[in-house]
Amino acid sequence: MSSFMRSRDLTLIQDLRTCTITRKGGSWYISMLVNIADALPDVKPLEKCKSIVGIDVGINKLIALSDGSFQENKRISTNKRTARRMAMRQRAISRKLKGSKNKIKAAKKLAKQQHKLAQHRDGYNWQVAKVVVDTADAVAKEDLNIKNMVKRAKPKHDGETALKEGFPPQATANPKGKGGYKRNNAAQKTGLNKVILDASWGAIFDKIAWLALKAGKPVVEVSARHTSQECPKCGHIDKKNRKGEKFLCTVCHHVDHADTKASRTIGKRVGLVFLKNKKTLPADCGKVTPSRHQSDWVETLVPCLRESSPCARNSDSWIFKRYGRTS
Ligand SMILES: [Zn+2]
Fold first, then answer.
1. This prediction's pTM
2. Which range marks the domain in which residue 86 is found?
């Protein structure tokens, strides 16, 4: 944070737009929105980028980079110790008398702790985003629908039991007490959702987009379809290709680290293809010469920037010119 503050040239500020004072977790914050003239560089066109880094986000490793390195997942609020402490604080609140001062005090304690964790996560995410953006001239990430990923488990109707008892499959309960539902591992899914939300992929993507924008580097979003199942060697797509952290192709027996491989697939899908005589170079070695776009996977380019951002509009124009897209 401190280096971030130091790098900011306050003399560039033209005028102050708004000033917001907020209180979070028992601390006061002042936030100022200022106008800075021409502070952002133009985003480099993808054709001129000499290297690209693909990133694959996950749970075991927070981010796998296509250069083979990893960023650890710190599990800020879902590690055993913190989760236990937070549960204790929560329980302490619920045990206090409704409307009492003690209840308010306990709630303040929890809020303070939650705020601390949020700040910790935020700071770590900035570090991770900086490493990613500094790796290459361009960043390729997958287009994840995180909102859909953290939906709760759907109820499973126990059709057979219900039908036997003369109830339609949609029956919500069985009068004989056998239950109209099968097990759907809802608790397991809830736990996974918590871990996904703790990893805060969306927040990391936002930070990467911002740091890349400041550095004039393009961020490319590609389809996330089969990134973890596709074999980089023979192109075979199979669920069985992946076993935990290991990738083993069922057809050509190509072996790789599953997350690293996924990040390389993402990098490749951007369409920075290798020269014919340099087929064995990894997509991120910096020696890749960008040539014709040969990928059907690219759906949107530089989408991570907010629509309101002026840079997003500028960089869109060259994308559409190049790929002939209108939407
Ligand atoms: Zn293969």
1. 0.74
2. 2-144+185-323
